[in-house]
Automatic annotation (TrEMBL):
Residues 210-383 form the Ketoreductase domain. SMART domains: PKS_KR. PROSITE patterns: ADH_SHORT. The lineage of its organism: Bacteria, Bacillati, Actinomycetota, Actinomycetes, Propionibacteriales. Belongs to the short-chain dehydrogenases/reductases (SDR) family. GO terms for molecular function: oxidoreductase activity, acting on the CH-OH group of donors, NAD or NADP as acceptor. It holds the Pfam family adh_short_C2. This is 3-oxoacyl-ACP reductase. Transmembrane segments: none annotated. It comes from the Bacteria.
Amino acid sequence: MTDRYQSLIQNPIAQFLVKNIGLPNPPELERWRGSGPLVDGTVLLGGTDDGIVLPQLPTTLKHAGIDTTTVRAEGRRYKGLVFDATGIDSTQGLVAIQQFFTPVLRQLAPSARIVVLGHLPDRTGTTGAAIAQRGLEGFVRSLGKEIGANGSTANLVYLTQESRDAVDATLQFLLSPKSTFVDGQVIRIGTTELTSVDGPTDPRKPLAGKVALVTGASRGLGAAMARTLHRDGASIIGLDVPPLQNDLAALMAELGGSSIIADITTEDAPATIADQLRDGVDVVVHNAGITRDKRLKNMKPENWDKVIDVSVGAPQRITDELLNRGLIRDGGRIIGISSIAGIAGNNGQTNYGTAKAGVIGFVQDLAPRLTDRRITVNAIAPGFIETDMVKTMPIGIREAGRRLSSLSQGGQPVDVAEAIAWYCHPGSGAITGNVVRVCGQGFLGA
Ligand code: NAD
């Protein structure tokens, strides 16, 4: 899947210009094709002696069919590197990361995945350890920028002594092509009393028996989410507005799902949706969103209100109704869709930036309130993803959105959908209150 610029630069003259005047040269990204090994190559494992995860890694990754080694061999290419840095407790100790990574970086295969495991800095107990562990974030974000040119990514997973056994599903996601557009991110496992996860499931259908509601499901990211959750075994209930009824019906027919036709901002929408989910729901993805871009000096009040209400006002009211009526099952997943505009802000998007930052406030407030029922609440913040929404952008902004990232291209809807499926996985039960960007490490924002 390439955009127009990617196709144009394939010819020899364009390649000459790319090399000599430094035009962006987007790598071809690998995506999960639904069969074959999760990782197409060997993963090199490393870590300090007192790392709390390294001892279990060869066994758990082998269970997932991932080939690993702890010994670097000259001349060999590695599809993944995992370094357990949880034991580093001083600034001097940080040299262990440099010693592991520097010699092996020339041996990265295309689209290789790097995962650093750290200890949640505020749970370390000493200042030296907190400094060292927080330092990992700068390391991973910088490394991601160095290795993006060949489609490789680097991410950091923080955990604790209690949550270290809850990392398998996350490692499988981050090491596989499913996370192709997740880069320079920090995932926190075990920030609440949720520290363990449900037992093993059918790896091909981890969501078998679950019911998932996706709003705005007829097209774009929502349609990809519906397809991906269905692929993983969930029964899908798609929701969209009346004008898109036929599109939604066609998709639900393809997936064997059912439709709810509603504008989520109407007063009766929460009750209508709850009535149709009377048998309960396991996954709620608040994906519906709109943009009405204008600089604040030209902003119409109705465009301010509508954008905020679709993205976060209505999701709050719908979630309240579903929780009050006990319709979200224990162990459920509530997922909000934020945006990099909600993290970094964007010119002409004060309404959208406010709405999408509000989504982060929503999930972070709700997450600790639902731990007793093992319901997790997280957000995904997409960067530039190729959908109808971005087709309306002025061309200059659109090209900048595509190229200004470590991977120098836009993502595909499936990239966001795979991240949603990872949040929904039974093995992600200790991940709550997280906001993960799916943005190819876009340079906009942190
Ligand atoms: P899209 O416009 O292609 O799809 C949005 C869907 O939401 C549509 O089906 C639409 O009918 C539905 N919707 C809108 N208002 C609704 C309402 N009141 N009630 C019910 N359904 C409603 O957009 P997309 O690009 O697929 O975006 C999906 C989500 O991802 C949105 O929340 C968007 O803000 C967010 N997002 C997208 C990008 C991107 O680059 N595409 C980046 C960041 C965030």
